[in-house]
Amino acid sequence: MDVPGLVEGASEGRGLGNTFLDNLNEADALIHIVDISGSTDKNGNAVERLSHNPEEDIKFLENELDQWYLRVIKKGWDKFSRTVVQENLDLKRSLAKQLSGLRVTEAIAQESLKELSLSHRPSEWVPNDLLNLAKELRKRTKPIIIAANKIDIEGAKYNFEKLKEKYEMILCSAEVELALREAAKRNLIKYVPGENKFEILNENKLNEQQKKGIEFMKKFLDEFNSTGIQDVLNKIVFEKLKYIAVFPGGVSKLEDKDGNVLPDCHLLAEGSTALDFAYRIHKDLGDNFIAAITVKDKRRVGREYKLKNMDVIEIAAKK
Known about the structure:
The protein is 42% helix and 14% strand. The chain is α/β, with parallel strands linked by helices.
C-alpha cells in the first residue's frame, strides 16, 4: 500500500499520527522513498539540489516508528512487568502476547532479548532499555529498505556514497523507469522492468527529441545497471520477507490458451507446502488434494512437500 509521508510528531498524535501509524501496522515491511539528491526539504518543498541532507529524512522516519513502538510497549507496562516477575512467567511468551498487535512472535521476542542482553526481570529495566527494545522489535517486525530516488540528478551520487555504508539503500530513478515504460507503451522500445538494457524498435521513425531521451536512458542503464525499482521490490520480497515464487503448470503443458508460458506466479511464505499451494490456487484443489507433481523433474510428491523458490507444480485432485 502507498501511504503519505509522516508529519513530525506523528508518534505523539499530531496530524492523525497515531491512527496513521496503527494503520501502517498492516504492512509486513516498509520501503522508504528518499530524495537522495537533497532537492526536497522535510516539508516536501522543492529546493536547490544538495541543499537538504537526506539523512535527516531517514532518521526522522526511524525515530517516529521507534517512538510509536515505545508508546505501545509502555501502555500498561508497570502492571505487565510486575505480573511477569510475581508469577514467574516466561518473558518471551508474555512479551509476544502483550505485543501481538505489533506482530511480535515468541521467536522475535527471544532474539531481541538476547541481542540486547536484557534481564529476565522486566521490572528492573530502565527507560533506555524500553527504548532499545522498541528499536529492536521495530527492526525485526518492520524491516525497511531505503529507495534512494532521483539518483539521475547531478550530485546525487555524492549523497548516496556518503550514506550507503550506514543504511540499507538501493539507488533508484523513478523518472527513468517511468520514461522507459512510457517508451515501451508507445512501441518505441522493448523493455522488461528490472533489466539493464532495452531494444530500440523502428529507430528510423524516432524524432530528435525521442532519440535524445532514449540515448539518456541508455546512458543511465549503462552507468547504474538498472533503475533500481525492481531491485527494491525483489530485495524486500525475497530477502527481507523471504517469500518464494511458485508457478502452477502442467507436465505436458506450460502455456495458457493464448500461448503465454507460465503466465501465473504465486508468492508464498518460506516453508509452504504443496497443500498450501493447492489451497492458494483454489479451495477445491486443497480440499480434494491427491498429490503434486514437480514439473521440472516430474516427481510425484505428497501434501507435506516443502516448496522451493521457482518450483513449477501441477496439482492432482479428486474430481
